[in-house]
Amino acid sequence: ALDVGCGDAYFGRRFVQSGVFDEVYALDLSWPSLSWARDEAEDAGFSPTDLRLVQGDAEALPFREGTINCAMWSMGLHAAENPGAVLRSICKSLHPNGGILVATGFKRVRGVASAAELESLAKSAEFNHFSVAEEGIRYVLVASRG
Question: pTM of the entire structure?
Answer without folding.
Answer: 0.95
